[in-house]
Design brief:
Radius of gyration: 19 Å
Organism: Gluconacetobacter liquefaciens
Mean pLDDT: 89
CATH superfamily: Winged helix-like DNA-binding domain superfamily/Winged helix DNA-binding domain
Helix content: 55-70%
Pfam family, one: HxlR
Protein name: Helix-turn-helix transcriptional regulator
Strand content: 5-15%
Number of strands: 3
Shape: globular
Number of domains: 1
InterPro entries: HTH_HxlR, WH-like_DNA-bd_sf, WH_DNA-bd_sf
GO molecular function, one term: DNA binding
CATH class: Mainly Alpha
Order of helices and strands: HHHEHHEEHH
Strand order of the largest sheet: 1-3-2
């Protein structure tokens, strides 16, 4: 895979706090952000909280709620309360959220296609940590 060259603006100020790539990475730095966006996408763009929670192993209700609130503040999801008894809550990707799913899906596809590379990275980290523990 060959990478396209970066525009000159990114080469001139690669560490600028406000540069778009850095802002994108900051947005995706939360542990559950990409998983929730990816899962909402897989579930057709909308989900009730219980179904979302069951779809993501290891995600606690507290962290799901916190992350969904952050995504709502960013304008990536909306929280809809349907006025039925009992009330039904549903989270839905906004148009902006669907646009942000694009880079997330690119990362997920890359990860699926390059699982062996990720396995080698994990093995390297494990060896390095074991070596560091032995040196203490």
């Amino acid at each position: 895979m060959s990478l396209a060259p970066l525009p000159d603006a990114y080469r001139q100020a690669p560490f600028d706090e406000g540069c778009a790539p850095r802002r994108l990475l900051r947005l995706f730095s939360g542990k559950w952000v990409t998983m929730i966006l990816h899962t909402l996408h897989l579930l057709g763009g909308a989900s009730r909280p219980g179904a979302l929670l069951r779809s993501i192993p290891g995600l606690s209700k507290k962290m799901m709620t916190q992350t969904l609130r952050e995504l709502e503040e960013m304008g990536l999801v909306t929280r809809e309360v349907h006025q039925v008894m009992p009330p039904v809550v549903e989270y839905r990707l906004t148009a902006l959220g669907r646009k942000m799913v694009e880079p997330v899906e690119m990362l997920y596809r890359w990860g699926a296609e390059h699982a062996a590379v990720l396995d080698r990275v994990d093995a390297h980290v494990t060896r390095a940590r074991k070596g560091a523990q032995g040196a203490v």
